[in-house]
Amino acid sequence: MYKRVVLKLSGEALAAGRGFGVDGSRIHEIAGEIAEVRQMGVDVGIVVGGGNFFRGVDQARDMDRVSADHMGMLATVINALAIQDALEKKGVHARVMSAIEMPQVCEPYIRRRAIRHLEKGRVVIFAAGTGNPYFSTDTAASLRAMEIKADVLLKATKVEGIYDADPVIKTDAVKFEQITYMEILRLGLKVMDTTAVSLCKDNNLPMIIFNLNQPGNIRRVICGEKVGSLVTA
Q1: How far is CA 128 from CA 30, 71, 81, 132, 224, in A?
Q2: If you compute the radius of gyration of the chain from its CA atoms, what whole number of angstroms results?
Q3: What pTM, to 2 d.p., does this model score?
Q4: 125 within 8 A of 92, measured Cβ to Cβ
Q5: 60-103 per-position pLDDT tens digit
């Protein structure tokens, strides 16, 4: 169904139930699913958050927001390196490209080089968000998806899709099978931050929100099965 995708992973997904750090078994499970998709011939880009180590927006109350966001960006680099290692152990070639240059650790993000890596069958992990404070990794995922001309943005979460209320708190919350970005903004749904939503809407980038904790869901989504919630412009 999709030839090139960007997968947005939260830092919390890598921590699993631990809440902090990287859970070794969980990250290898996720890497196994990504490896399966790569073997199908799909170009995969990954944007990862850093909330399992440091969340800049939460710390900004106690420190300068710019400093907090820079620390959050560095946290995403730690996660990106962990994903790269897990993928390589599955036999998948992967490259970490950071929006903040640190050549001893990973490559700088260069759009054309990223596309070339994808064309050669490598998984590209985009780290350090956009490289700018005040922009979330959701916005980075939207931006990178458009820059590499991805067919769809896949946002992996811990719920089945988009609901009109938090399904963990409200048991009768209604799931949207399909919704537009404008409706997300109008209803004030906390799916992604408004900058990311507006960016996707303005550039007609479809997005699918799905449950990462259901094994095989990444493959199902890419194969076009009705999984999660589809967001269109």
Answers
A1: 20, 9, 11, 9, 30
A2: 17
A3: 0.95
A4: no
A5: 677 898 999 999 999 999 999 999 999 999 999 999 999 999 99
Distance CA 220, CA 3 (A): 14
SS3 127: strand
Q: Can you list the alpha helix ranges (DSSP code H) found in the chain?
A: 11-15, 24-39, 56-59, 65-89, 111-119, 137-147, 181-187, 194-202, 217-222
**DSSP count for the chain of H helices, then E strands:** 9, 11
201 vs 180: CA distance, rounded Å: 8
Q: Is 64 exposed, middle or buried (0-12, 13-18, 19+ CB in 10 A)?
A: exposed
Tokens 């699918």 sit at which residue? 208
For residue 191, give the nearest of 212, 209, 169 by alpha carbon: 209
Task: Identify whether the C-beta of residue 39 lies closer than 8 Å to the C-beta of residue 174.
Answer: no
Element (H, E) at 157: strand 152-157
